[in-house]
């Protein structure tokens, strides 16, 4: 029996802090992305030709470049740096960009994307889950080429490894976004070969990955620096050797000032890619 002087202390359930709630949300998003990535990996491993190409291309590129290189390359940059930059460009154009355009279109036409949008997964998680396998394969290829170049082609220690990482990761983000945006004018998986061709060809010729930009007329060279792959090439070249081949090599500190312009171009392409995906990406086939 209680007396008037006795009081009851109300009990309350502890509320999670904002930081713990955010951490739980990130973990849940990570689990959903991993689940979708595993499904994409299973589909990829069933494609024997794709797996052989992914594993063999780095070694073949090193051997081919070593056998066919001439002094013209060596005058501008070390052979190991040249092949590492070229491989990164090929990976972004073919393994990431072309492959993801095909993957996104295939999932859209099969109504997979539409079904995933009815689940707990966000739009970002759906797009990222599809992209992760291609990104992982691409990064493995770049690492294999860098290791082979260090062993066979005397690739030295990077002048500024931070710029190399920024270039690779920034390029990956740009070409994932461009792949998603390109699906807006790609109706079928087969038509991806045509819809991706302009960007692939222009990037291979005018990005600096194969032909130095200073060999072109000034106006064309300046315009080429605004392409999506060019800042990636410039950042990796600066990180590996301290120069993009058009000026004397800078030291670790000096490369940061040289990297401002390509970094700004890269950020602009990321912004444009995000805008294009939000504006034109379709989650289901056209009716």
TrEMBL record:
PROSITE patterns reported for this sequence: ABC_TM2
Region (Disordered), start-end ranges: 1-21
Major site of localization recorded for this protein: membrane
Keyword DNA-binding found: no
Family: Belongs to the ABC-2 integral membrane protein family.
Source organism per UniProt: Phytoactinopolyspora halotolerans
InterPro entries: ABC-2_transporter (IPR052902), ABC2_TM (IPR013525), ABC2_TM_bact-type (IPR047817)
Membrane-topology descriptor: Multi-pass membrane protein
Domain ABC transmembrane type-2: 49-280
GO molecular function terms noted in the UniProt entry: ABC-type transporter activity
A Pfam cross-reference name: ABC2_membrane
Keywords, ordered alphabetically: Cell membrane, Membrane, Transmembrane, Transmembrane helix, Transport
Sequence intervals crossing the membrane: 48-67, 79-105, 126-153, 159-180, 192-211, 259-277
Protein name: Transport permease protein
Top-rank lineage group of the source organism: Bacteria
Compartments where located: Cell membrane; Membrane
One annotated Gene Ontology cellular component of this protein: plasma membrane
């Amino acid at each position: 029996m209680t007396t008037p002087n006795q009081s009851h202390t109300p009990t309350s359930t502890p509320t999670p802090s904002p930081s713990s709630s955010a951490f739980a949300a990130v973990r849940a998003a990570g689990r959903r992305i991993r689940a979708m990535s595993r499904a994409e990996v299973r589909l990829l491993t069933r494609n024997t030709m794709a797996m052989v190409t992914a594993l063999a291309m780095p070694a073949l590129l090193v051997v081919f470049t070593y056998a066919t290189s001439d002094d013209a390359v060596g005058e501008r940059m070390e052979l190991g740096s040249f092949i590492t930059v070229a491989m990164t460009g090929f990976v972004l154009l073919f393994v990431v960009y072309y492959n993801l355009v095909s993957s996104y279109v295939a999932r859209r036409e099969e109504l997979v994307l539409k079904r995933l949008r009815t689940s707990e997964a966000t739009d970002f998680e759906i797009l990222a889950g599809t992209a992760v396998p291609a990104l992982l394969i691409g990064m493995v290829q770049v690492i294999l080429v860098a290791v082979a170049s260090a062993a066979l082609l005397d690739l030295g220690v990077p002048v500024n490894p931070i710029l190399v990482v920024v270039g690779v990761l920034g390029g990956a983000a740009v070409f994932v976004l461009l792949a998603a945006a390109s699906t807006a004018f790609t109706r079928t998986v087969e038509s991806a070969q045509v819809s991706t061709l302009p960007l692939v060809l222009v990037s291979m010729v005018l990005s600096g990955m194969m032909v130095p930009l200073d060999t072109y007329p000034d106006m064309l060279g300046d315009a080429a620096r605004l392409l999506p792959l060019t800042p990636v090439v410039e950042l990796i070249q600066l990180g590996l050797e301290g120069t993009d081949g058009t000026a004397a090599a800078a030291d670790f500190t000096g490369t940061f000032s040289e990297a401002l312009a390509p970094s700004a171009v890269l950020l602009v392409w990321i912004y444009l890619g995000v805008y294009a995906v939000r504006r034109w990406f379709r989650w289901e086939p056209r009716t």
